Amino acid sequence: MQSENRLLDDLAKIAGGAFSSFSTLKDEAEARLHEKLEKILVRMDLVKRDEFEAVQALAIRAREENEALAKQLNELQAQLRAQLAGTARPKQRKRRAALKDNPNPKDD
How many CA atoms lie within 13 A of 106 on its CB side? Predict the structure, then answer.
């Protein structure tokens, strides 16, 4: 019985050693895989998440500013048209009306 217990103890030690070896091997394989993936990602020249979000925020802000400026431009153009229509002299009004009726007066 004594020899049987010793045999089981030796088998347990061998199994424990093999298990720790496999654990170390697994850790090393994971580390190498991680390194390889990092190298691949660096070569792909991908953008980091925080950089992407910063540029996205700039684009949104630029779009909103563009829309505001377009609205302001339309309002200013409308004001200018109103001022030009209100300040036109009677002679210019007649000429404008004539041009609306016949845009090419030389064709007459």
Answer: 0
Owner of token pair 């990602």 = 41
Domain-wise residue ranges, the chain: 1-46, 47-108
Q: How many residues does the chain have?
A: 108
Q: Give 10-residue mean pLDDT values along the chain (108 residues).
A: 70 79 85 92 88 97 98 96 79 66 59
Q: Are 88 and 96 in contact (CB under 8 A)?
A: yes
CA distance 29 to 23: 10
Predicted TM-score of the model (pTM) = 0.44
CB of 99 closer than 8 Å to CB of 91: no
Distance between CA atoms of residues 10 and 16, nearest Å: 10
Give the 3-state secondary structure percentages of the chain, helix then strand then coil, rounded to 5.
Answer: 90, 0, 10
Nearest to 20 by CA among 12, 10, 31: 12
